[in-house]
Specification:
Number of domains: 2
Radius of gyration: 27 Å
CATH architecture of the largest domain: Beta Barrel
Largest sheet: 10 strands, mixed
Distance between the termini: 45 Å
Strand content: 15-25%
Number of strands: 20
Number of helices: 9
CATH topology of the largest domain: L,D-transpeptidase catalytic domain-like
Structural class: alpha+beta
CATH superfamily of the largest domain: L,D-transpeptidase catalytic domain-like
Shape: elongated
């Protein structure tokens, strides 16, 4: 949270208000407009710090305890910027931190109180905006973005108390974010009642592993904060996919070295006693010849990090969590041991990749190989090569197609080594056949593919299981 006197240093809406305030920038020293500071901060790269001990696992606190109240000030105009900073009025914390907050709220009920969260996880770019908008003389009062803040780790929470009886806020020695000694955790002034409420909150939080910031009675850091990384996830990209993953008995994890590399590794996982365990050695895999790009189809979550977005014809495979459809092939019947619903491809089967056509993204069968068609282009499902000898539909932009964001994404036989695909995921024929014999549609297999440097970011945004990571043999 902000530290004492910081509010007086901030430029509000590109005016000279901050320069006239006590502790603000020196008169005559130009300060960039707020909109420009925000734009530059969002483009900046967070610090590269030593790898954290724990994989991030952000959860929305109120999903664990709906009885916790929210008053997220940065999602409204009721803050020192007078404009919303967050796009959503939600509170996210690392799961152990959120669970500790839930225990605090449960324990406070005996005293007739409930918690009200004012701020929790904060993207790193917001910390940078605070720093860049603060006069150098006052930067001792804000977190240095080169180091990040505990809020960026999802391990700090700002909160106060409300009365359970009527939901009204409990009086405190100062207002939230007030810039005066009354905000200090050990301030001895004010009413006895206000100090009692403040100390009740502090005692309950410290009992669950939190430490109060001495300048701010409302700000508490959890003891686990050094174990988690600095994060820059926008609120809009945080979508809990754990329920979806929990239904999957099998997961295929595909990772590449970076966005633009067409080659990577595939690791199989199967669910055993509630956990995903690796199966076999990693298999070489090829994705789009241009690499990967974030999913851009209907229902895809906002990207958890900056990166290319999937478009028609870009030569990139979709990064995200994807399901599988039916299998196609050249033989009259599915290979022995394969359990997918199977269709034998003919010279008349096409997948429409004309984004202006009503059947964009659909697999259709024409009357004859030379029958007239109304689309400009389509993929043939029976080729002169072996690339589609074994083919499984990957559900990307095929159920509710969006124009121009990619189509006809399959799991199929790999092209010559190093060549990459047009946007599909491919393996050597023998490896693919081994994979298909292992996969069981009844187990709801899912494909998780992402550049490996982005895996922890995706894990934090989507609540991916901690055991889901590439293995080395």
């Amino acid at each position: 949270m902000l530290k004492p006197f910081f509010k007086l240093t901030f430029l509000v809406l590109a005016t000279t208000l901050a320069s006239r305030a006590k502790g603000g920038p020196e008169p005559g020293v130009p300060v960039p407009p707020l909109a420009l500071l925000i734009a530059k901060a969002k483009e900046a790269i967070p610090p590269s710090l030593p790898k954290s001990r724990l994989a991030p696992n952000l959860v929305e606190v109120t999903t664990l305890d709906p009885g916790i109240r929210l008053d997220i000030r940065y999602a409204s105009k009721d803050n020192f910027l007078h404009v919303p900073v967050y796009g959503l009025a939600k509170a996210f914390l690392q799961r152990p931190v959120a669970e500790a907050v839930v225990r605090v709220n449960r324990n406070l009920k005996r005293s007739g109180f409930a918690l009200r969260i004012l701020d929790a996880y904060r993207p790193w770019w917001v910390t940078k905006v605070f720093w860049d908008a603060t006069a150098p003389v006052n930067r001792d009062y804000v977190a240095d973005p080169a180091k990040g803040s505990v809020h960026n780790r999802g391990c700090a929470v700002d909160l106060d108390l409300v009365h359970l009886a009527d939901g009204t806020p409990a009086t405190m020695p100062s207002d939230y974010d007030e810039m005066s000694p009354r905000s200090h955790a050990n301030y001895a002034g004010g009413s006895t009642e206000a100090r009692h409420h403040r100390d009740t909150l502090r005692s309950a939080m410290e009992a669950e592993g939190f430490r109060v910031l001495k300048e701010e009675w409302w700000h508490f850091d959890h003891a686990s904060s050094p174990d988690y990384p600095i994060m820059n996830l926008p609120f809009e990209s945080i979508r809990d996919r754990s329920a979806e993953l929990a239904k999957a008995g099998q997961v295929l994890l595909v990772t590449t070295p970076d966005w633009n590399n067409p080659q990577g590794g595939l690791q199989r996982f199967e669910r055993l006693k509630g956990s995903l365990v690796p199966v076999g050695a990693p298999l070489p895999v090829w994705v789009g010849h241009a690499g990967m790009a974030w999913r851009n189809d209907d229902g895809a979550p906002s990207p958890p990090a900056v990166g290319p977005m999937k478009r028609e014809g870009d030569g990139r495979a979709p990064a995200g969590i994807l399901a599988f459809g039916d299998m196609w092939g050249y033989a009259p019947q599915a290979p022995e041991g394969v359990r997918f619903s199977y269709r034998s491809a003919t010279d008349c089967d096409r997948c429409v990749d004309d984004s202006d056509h009503p059947d964009y993204g659909k697999i259709l069968r024409v009357e004859s190989p030379k029958a007239p068609v109304t689309w400009r282009s389509a993929e043939r499902l029976r080729l002169d090569s072996d690339h589609y000898r074994y083919l499984v539909v990957i559900h990307y932009n095929d159920l509710h197609p969006r124009k121009a964001v990619g189509s006809c994404i399959f799991l199929h036989v790999a092209p010559p080594p190093g060549g990459g695909t047009a946007g599909c995921t491919a393996l050597a024929a023998n490896d693919l056949l081994t994979l298909l014999r292992w996969m069981d549609p009844a187990q709801n297999p899912l494909l998780v593919q992402v550049p490996e440097p982005l895996l922890d970011t995706a894990r934090a945004a989507w609540n991916l299981p901690s055991e889901l990571h590439p293995t080395v043999h």
